[in-house]
Amino acid sequence: MPASQDPQSPPPHADDEISLIDLAKLLVRRWKAMVGIFSVVVLMALAYALMQPSSYTYTSIYQVAESGTGEPLETPAALVARTQNLYLGPATRELMAAEGVESLGFDTRVSNPDDTEIVKLSSTAPEVLAERVEAHHRLLLDRLEEGQQARVERHRQALERQLAGVENTLEHSGEGASERIASTLSRKFELQAELEGLMAGETAQAAVQSLEQQGTSRALILALGVVLGGMLAVMGVFLLHFVSLVRQSLHEDG
C-alpha cells in the first residue's frame, strides 16, 4: 500500500507555478529589455508614419446642360454611364502614355449626387500626384463638354427649324384664321423662350483638393505603435525568460 503524502510537502509541479508577484518581479528585473523592445517598435511606427505620403481627395464638378424648360438635355445618370463606359478608359490610357507609366496610381470615380443635376469626379491620391489627377480630370471634363456641346447644338438646330416652320406658317396664314394664328404665335413664343433659356454644360470646379487628409493619419499610426510596443515588450520579456529557463535546464541536464 503506497505511503500517504506528507501534507506539509509541496504539491507536484509546484515549482512550475508562477504568481502575479513573480510576474511583476520578472518585469522589473528585465525593464531594460522592455524599454528596448518598446523603443524599437515605436521608432518603427514613427518611421512608417513619416514615410506615408499625405493623401487627399480631389473633386471635379460638371454642371449638366439644360434645355430652355429647365430640364437636363441628358439625365446625369446617363451621362455618368457614358463617362464610365466611353470616356474613362481612353482618357486613362492617353494619360498613361503621355506620362510613360503603367499605372496612374489612383482611381477616378464618376457619380451623380442625389437630387442634383451634376456629374462628380473624385480621386484619392498622394499630394505628389496632384498634377496627374488634375490632368486626368481635365481629360474627362473635356470629353464631357464636347459631348454635351454637340447635344446642345443639335437641340438648338431642332428648335430653330421648328421656329422657322412656325414663322412660315404665320406668314401664310389667312386673316380669318385668328384662333390658328393665336395658337401659332403662342408656339412661336414658347420656342423663342426655350432657345433663349438653352444652357450649355460647364465645369463648376476642377480637381479641388479636400481640406482634410485622407486615409490613416500619422497620429493614429503612432498611437497604434505605442500600444503594440507595450504589448510586445511584455510578451518579449516573458519569451526571454522562457528561453533562459530552457537554456538553464539544458545546461543542468548536460
Q: What is the molecular shape?
A: rod-shaped
Number of helices: 6
> Whole-Å distance between the termini?
36 Å
The helical percent reads 55-70%
Task: Provide the CATH topology of the largest domain.
Answer: Bacterial polysaccharide co-polymerase-like
Mean pLDDT: 83
CATH architectural label of the largest domain = 2-Layer Sandwich
Look at the structure and give the CATH class of the largest domain: Alpha Beta
Strand order of the largest sheet: 2-3-1-4
Number of domains: 2
Low-confidence stretches: 1-5
What is the radius of gyration? 38 Å
Q: What are the secondary-structure elements, in order, as H or E? A: HHEHEEHHEH
**SS content category:** alpha+beta
**Main sheet properties:** 4 strands, antiparallel
- The count of β-strands is 4
Question: β content, as a range?
Answer: 5-15%
Describe the overall structure.
The structure is a single chain. 60% of the residues lie in helices and 12% in strands. Strands 2-3-1-4 form a four-stranded antiparallel sheet. With 254 residues, it is α+β, with helices and mostly antiparallel strands. It is rod-shaped. It has six helices and four strands. Residues 1-5 have low confidence and may be disordered. The chain has two domains: 18-50 and 217-253, no CATH class; 55-209, Bacterial polysaccharide co-polymerase-like, CATH 3.30.1890. α2 (31-51) runs antiparallel to α6 (218-253), α3 packs across α4 and α4 packs antiparallel against α5.
In short:
By secondary structure, the protein is an alpha+beta fold.
Supply database-style keywords.
254 residues; alpha+beta; Bacterial polysaccharide co-polymerase-like; 2 domains; four-stranded antiparallel beta sheet; 6 helices; 4 strands
